[in-house]
Design goal:
By secondary structure, the protein is mainly α. Helix content is 80%, strand content 0%. The chain is rod-shaped, with a radius of gyration of 24 Å.
Length: 142
């Protein structure tokens, strides 16, 4: 059985860290350490799956947490803008009401942009997963 060139590499710890944290592209890692991208891919798939999965899970949890906090804050801002709008309309302060409408519109726009970005990111991740599966299955080679 052939040895893994990455496992035997003098800078294995640094390579593993770069692969797990995705601090650089496979191409950059390969160039920096003088190894092939295919060797990196095999090493990552065969020798680092638990570390990679743990890092990806932590990254996803952090993204979900920060995204959820941002959405919660935008919801609070929208509620406040609508409350100001209602109070301004009730007291006949039309300039304040128009400002509250603008703020509510901008908050809704920010929520929509955040939702679209999250949807786009999810689609990209799904496509990347399909590509990896196709590559593993020998359907597609790089």
């Amino acid at each position: 059985m052939a040895l893994c060139s990455i496992c035997e590499h003098l800078n294995r710890a640094a390579i593993d860290k770069a692969l797990v944290t995705r601090s650089a592209s496979m191409r950059d890692i390969a160039g920096q350490y003088g190894v092939s991208r295919s060797a990196l891919s095999r090493h990552k798939a065969n020798h680092l799956p638990r570390l990679v999965q743990a890092a990806e899970a932590a990254e996803e949890a952090q993204a979900v947490t920060s995204g959820a906090a941002l959405i919660d804050e935008l919801d609070r801002l929208l509620e406040r803008a609508l409350a100001i709008l209602e109070a301004a309309e009730g007291s006949g302060q039309l300039r304040v009401a128009l400002q509250a409408i603008r703020e509510a519109r901008e908050t809704i726009k920010a929520c929509a942009e955040l939702a679209m970005a999250a949807e786009l990111e999810a689609r990209v991740e799904a496509l990347e997963a399909q590509i990896v599966e196709a590559q593993r299955g020998g359907v597609w080679s790089v």
